[in-house]
Amino acid sequence: MAELPCGEFSEFKEALQxxxxxxxxxxxxxxxxxxxxxxxxxxxxxxxxxxxYEEMKAGYLARPxxxxxxxxxxxxxxxxxxxxxxxxxxxxxATNKALRxxxxxxxxxQSELAVEDVIRERSTxxxx
Length: 128
Known about the structure:
By secondary structure, the chain is mostly helical. Helices cover 79% and strands 0% of the residues. It is built from 5 helices and no strands. Helix 4 packs antiparallel against helix 5. The radius of gyration is 20 Å and the shape is rod-shaped.
């Protein structure tokens, strides 16, 4: 499983973009993977496409698991902060601010799972 940094959302997003590089450049990769007629006898287009699909498939399995891992860690942190806030009677501004920040990060990470579905659908459609 690919390991994503879960602490700061900007680092999480940047690492996720790197993991999505193949999907972002799928049309280019397909065009460079399929040989022209002059090279058709030297390189198997079917084999190259299969190899590219296997790379994409590995990403489809690893990325959602890595995102879910960060969602789980952030959810735990939100629960800790809620407990801490309740213990302080809800009056600690620093705890309230940290809780809001973690809740926002959690929502953004959850939205990345939906983005993952869109990316997967688009890349699969292009491959076909």
